[in-house]
Amino acid sequence: MSKLIYIALAGLAFSQLQGCATAVVGGAAVGASVALDRRTAGVYVGDQEIELRAMVRLRENFPQKTDNISATSYNRQLLLTGQVPDETTRSRATDVVKGIPDVRTVFNELSVSGVTSLTSDANDVALTSKVKARMFRDERVPGIKIKVVTEAGVVYLMGLVTSTEAEFATEIARTTAGVVKVVTLFEYIN
User: Fold this and answer.
1) The whole model's pTM is what?
2) Which single residue of 47, 94, 99, 153 could bond 73 by disulfide (Cβ 3.0 to 4.6 Å)?
């Protein structure tokens, strides 16, 4: 069974244990619709396509090295997270995905390191769920409109937000127990 399946199962199990306030898997509330998103429907669907194309291209170029790479797209900005075995793979990963149609920016946050444990991966899923749950409970933050990605305790925040919303969301993530660091990749709206 692949590492991604274990992570998904851990996220689902965690969300069930925490109740309806944290029914969150992979940074999107279960049942959330495109209508609640600040992106247009076309961009929303395009982001999903970008993620799929990125993973296909990475697997084609690095057949044995992509089990620990994740690709997350928000408003056509692509975030690469995970672990790769060497700097060459890390550097080439950006080149491999930047040619995908409609990708505006690539944030390469891949680390050159060994494979993380299932415990570490489950911890990342739990941290994402905790951050999202805290955002949902805070009316100053449009929690459903912010994508949260966690890798090795580092929380990445993506979304179309006002500067005030970004400030509150960053503070929530920063003060969540277990978060090592917060990286904001927001785009600002008026």
Assistant:
1) 0.81
2) 47
